[in-house]
Specification:
The complex is a heterodimer. Chain A is an alpha/beta fold. Chain A is built from 22 helices and 28 strands. In chain A, strands 5-4-16-15-14-6-7 form a seven-stranded mixed beta sheet, with helices on one face. In chain A, strands 27-22-26-23-25-24-28 form a seven-stranded mixed beta sheet. In chain A, β19 and β20 form a beta hairpin. Chain B has one domain: Alpha-Beta Plaits (2-Layer Sandwich). The chains are: A alpha/beta, B alpha+beta. At the A-B interface, α2, β3, α7, α8 and α20 of A face α2, β2, α5 and α7 of B.
């Protein structure tokens, strides 16, 4: 009897089959195996193999000069950390330094000279030979009608001396640096004491009170490990005067939240208390040639009157003044936020004058003079941006070193000639400046070449170290010394430039010949007197293997002529009323520099630091403008507008927009748009390079 | 978990951490050190704090007072190394999560992981991360990967494992010296080593004299969501009242939870 196969039978068979397979190990095994197969995808990289070694060097991504220990596989660094017991860094480095070994392999790395072809905004990069690039630089320099400038953001290095020498031999040479200077107070004081060529530093290690006007002391300032160690030792009280709840304000022992743009007024109201309550010694009063004039200016800054401008109560001002004079030692310093821009010259001088009034110059725990590093020339101050006439620079060479602080393109553009200017970038990685350049002549990347690390920011004694290469130099890159030498030859300028290694060996020979100081070696954590090192070659070997030279001698400070040199007695807040925009950033992660792509862990994949285009406002401001968390808004100033994402926090003063100029998220930068200075473009940048407060508006999208 | 005869004869560690929130300044060194040490790839363009991979993720909390009375603190959140009823291990259908009985470390075996993400759902701390994209580094950065840690592939979950690569290296060094016990100085996770403020204390919580064990019993030390009874081995320390009050919210059951379970 034949059995008719019905549709039900087919369905039963199919269902049973599926159930049977499901109950068997087959699907689970396939799923399990699929996970294993994916391991062999070419997209999952093979690990490097080879001998594991340790190497030492120094980070040169900023002026901090931190010592680093690199674990290497087959000679390639894979993990960078601080050097334990280091006298300056105390074993720590910043996040940027921790990922510094990635910089040579940055996605926007360039290794050959390039120029740009096509219209602005649509231009494309075209490679050219080094000779063609050098010929072009020489041609532009010889045809220049305006100044020829070199922007060096880490002045004081051996290459800086060569830049200065080169510029001194050409007509209209201008030596420039970043407008944001961590040593701004020292620079102001040197001018006030007519000791411009004297090297000085902060004796933080012995001070009891640090009064900071906005300096990001605990967020990457100077050598970060040094400041962290002082904070952790609790040897000094930190008072942070800051219009923002910055990372330093957060960690300081006391935060004084003043209105943005009123730092000069607060500094002078502190000076008012010091003078009017007879807290300034007769010696100081008699030694300053314009003390009477200064006193006359300061009399306008009665704290009872300034409170409406600064938002700081008079009793708080008096308390600060009293603490400054009763403290065993104190340092007053100013500083730029990494993205927020420096203070204007008058504000710098007003803040620096407090050091003169409390008499901490040349004293332990105050501002001290340091001897020069043997072999180095006395420092010369780069030209102030305010002293450079607008539209006066025809050729600008931008050195590859970074200060870690923002530098708006609009400021540079203001100084370039309008008709025909020529900008050369030596950066090994495409950045905001290179996007505006006419020619790129990339230098070797970080850790690819030998560099000197002289006096780190604010160090109280002279130091010297070497940043020895950890990576092989890429073919096609050009050492800045080579570029300078070749250009000088083409311009028939007599400039003797030996090989850079020889230049640095001369410095080491000079240090050895003076028998000053000690050398701390990283390999065995030992200190050796230079006088006990038999030859300069031995000293060179120690330094290249990982060591720092520290001067053991001090120097007396001799003010030549003491003058406060203030000219403004206005008590008016120097910003308009209304919504105010304050830019902020994080040292080394502002628009000028690039960071390792791994920094996305703090910028993009967590809420630790804000990416570019994020603004933070107070809930009251958000309510006023109808904005909710993470909503899009249009931020506008008289310079333009930009779409931003709003964050809301009670840590922001009502009426203030805090805007991050951090990096863009990974993967969206291109050679044409390598970084985002869009927020900086909205800021009002003055001729002397300040952009601290800008009147702005917010509109919900 | 069943232990072998070999394991029983070994010293039993209970590795844990105490994080001093008053010392943490949110510098981010720990997050970067963690990513570099553990071969975590940089973010893709579309990645954000929800779908990116930051094994040690920093959260910012505030006392919500108005400017300028506001205060903030940073809370690093990563695998809390639950000791009891470890939620991720309990739910994993693949046995891709295990606890090393000799160290107490909750481990993850990416090769076994199917990417079902049950563990991510189960984790009360949101401390597990899914690889939504293939890991990508530039060619040069591939040569700079940590040779002791295998990169994970797209489609698997990963988490902090107290830098197991460093633990293996310490064990190998001990073995080479003829010892069965590691030198504690040889095993320090990358975040602990790198923290400039020494805010993270790591050690054997079973070893009473160690700083970590002492700190874990300090009156100002607490654990997040400890009411769940999973006995996390990551502790937090703060002397600030508002930080404790914030943490208390995670320690007590809400009224809604009392009603609905």
């Amino acid at each position: 009897m034949s059995k008719i196969i019905t549709r039900r039978d087919i369905l039963k068979f199919t269902g049973g089959g599926i159930l049977g397979v499901m109950l068997s190990p087959l699907p689970w095994k396939l799923l399990d195996d699929s996970a294993i197969w994916t391991q062999n995808w070419s997209l999952t990289p093979q690990l490097p193999r080879g001998p594991i070694t340790t190497a030492f060097s120094h980070c040169t991504l900023c002026n901090g000069g931190c010592a680093i220990k690199a674990q290497c596989v087959s000679g390639m660094p894979y993990f960078v950390s601080g050097v334990q017991n280091h006298p300056a860094t105390h074993g720590t480095i910043c996040p940027r330094g921790l990922a510094s070994h990635h910089m040579a392999h940055h996605p926007l790395r360039i290794v050959h000279p390039h120029t740009f072809v096509g219209k602005s905004g649509e231009s494309r990069m075209v490679a050219l030979s080094l000779n063609e690039a050098l010929d072009e630089i020489a041609k532009q320099m010889s045809e220049a009608k305006g100044s020829i400038a070199i922007l060096d953001q880490q002045p004081g290095r051996a290459i800086s001396e060569l830049y200065e020498e080169f510029l001194s031999k050409i007509k209209n040479g201008v030596y420039l640096s970043s407008p944001s200077n961590e040593n701004a107070t020292i620079v102001a004081l040197q001018e006030m004491m007519d000791r411009k060529s004297e090297s000085s530093g902060y004796d933080f290690e012995n001070t009891k009170l640090i009064l900071s006007f906005g300096a990001p002391l605990l967020d990457g300032w100077g050598t970060p490990g040094r400041m962290t160690a002082i904070k952790n030792r609790k040897s000094a009280k930190f008072i942070q005067i800051d219009s923002r709840y910055s990372r330093t304000a957060m960690q300081a022992d006391q935060w004084i939240a003043l209105k943005p743009g009123t730092e000069r007024i607060l500094a002078l109201s502190i000076a008012y208390v010091l003078i009017n309550e007879n807290l300034v010694t007769k010696q100081i009063q008699s030694s300053a040639i314009d003390f009477g004039q200064f006193k006359n200016i300061v009399k306008n800054f009665n704290p009872e009157k300034t409170v409406t401008v600064t938002d700081i109560q008079s009793h708080e001002v008096r308390k600060i003044a009293e603490e400054l004079v009763t403290s065993e030692s104190a340092i007053v310093l100013s500083g730029a936020d990494s993205g927020g821009g420096p203070f204007d010259t008058e504000t710098e001088k007003a803040i620096a004058s407090l050091n003169l009034l409390i008499g901490n110059i040349g004293k332990q725990g105050g501002i001290v003079a340091r001897k020069e590093i043997p072999g180095y020339a006395s420092p010369t101050q780069p030209m102030q941006w305010s002293n450079i006439p607008d539209h006066s620079i025809s050729v600008l060479i931008v050195d590859d070193a970074d200060s870690g602080y923002a530098l708006p393109w609009s400021l540079i553009e203001k100084k370039l000639t309008t008709e025909k200017s020529f900008v050369v970038s030596l950066s090994p990685v495409l950045n905001e400046i290179s996007a505006h350049s006419d020619l790129l002549v990339p230098a070797p990347a970080h850790f690819e070449s030998l560099r000197d690390v002289p006096n780190t920011t604010g160090s109280a004694t002279a130091t010297f170290a070497l940043s020895t290469p950890l990576l092989k130099k890429q073919d096609g890159t050009t050492e800045p010394t080579e570029m300078l030498k070749e250009v000088a030859q083409r311009l028939n300028i007599s400039l003797e430039i030996p090989a850079f290694k020889e230049i640095l060996m001369q410095k080491v020979r000079a240090i050895h010949s003076q028998k000053r100081g000690t050398v701390f070696s990283y390999t065995d954590q030992s200190s050796t007197n230079v006088s006990d090192i038999s030859s300069s070659d031995d000293l060179w070997i120690k330094l290249t293997e990982g060591a720092i030279w520290i001067d053991g001698t001090s120097k007396q400070f001799h003010p030549v002529k003491l003058t406060f040199a203030l000219s403004t007695n206005s008590i008016r807040q120097n910003v308009d009323q209304g919504l105010q925009l304050i830019a902020y950033g994080w040292k080394g992660a502002t628009s000028f520099a690039q960071v390792s792509p791994i920094m996305s862990k703090v910028f993009q994949e967590s809420e630790l630091r804000d990416v570019n285009g994020t603004v933070t406002i107070n809930p009251k401001t958000a309510h006023q403008f109808g904005l909710s968390k993470d909503e899009l808004a249009t931020l506008s100033t008289k310079n333009g507008s930009l779409e931003v994402r709003a964050r809301i926090s009670t840590s922001v003063r009502p009426g203030i927009i805090e805007a991050s100029i951090g990096p863009l998220p990974n993967g969206i930068e291109t050679p044409a748009h390598p970084a985002g200075t869009n927020i900086l473009n909205l800021c009002e940048v003055t001729g002397d390079g300040t952009w601290r407060v800008t009147t702005a508006n917010l509109l919900k999208v | 978990m069943e232990t072998t005869t070999e394991n029983k004869s070994l010293k039993k560690y209970k590795y844990g951490m105490v994080i001093d929130l008053d010392k943490c300044n949110g510098c981010g060194v720990c997050s970067i050190a963690c990513a570099v040490e553990n071969n975590v790839p940089p973010a893709q363009a579309k990645a954000n704090k929800r779908n990116g991979i930051s094994l040690l993720n920093m959260h910012t909390v505030s006392n919500n007072e108005q400017f300028p009375k506001n205060e903030s603190a940073f809370i690093p959140i990563f695998c809390q190394q639950c000791e009891q009823e470890t939620p991720c291990m309990t739910v994993c259908p693949q046995n891709a999560v295990d606890i090393d009985p000799t160290t107490g470390i909750v481990g993850q075996v990416p090769q076994r992981c199917l990417g079902c993400r049950y563990c991510m759902t189960a984790c009360p701390y949101h401390a597990r991360y899914f690889n939504w994209w293939d890991p990508e580094w530039t060619e040069g950065m591939k040569q700079q990967l940590n040779p002791d840690v295998a990169p994970r592939m797209r489609g698997v979950v990963e988490k902090c494992n107290f830098c197991h690569g460093r633990l293996h290296a310490a064990k190998q060094k001990a073995a080479a010296n003829g010892s069965r016990e590691i030198d504690t100085a040889d095993y320090i996770p990358a975040c602990v080593e790198s923290c400039p403020n020494k805010a993270i204390t790591f050690g054997d919580l079973n070893d009473e004299p160690t700083e970590a064990a002492q700190l874990s019993k300090n009156k100002d030390t607490f654990r997040f969501l400890s009411r769940l009874g999973t006995e996390p081995k990551v502790y937090y320390h703060s002397e600030k009242k508002w930080v404790h009050e914030m943490a208390e919210k995670s320690l007590t059951r809400s009224l809604q939870e009392e009603i609905h379970g």
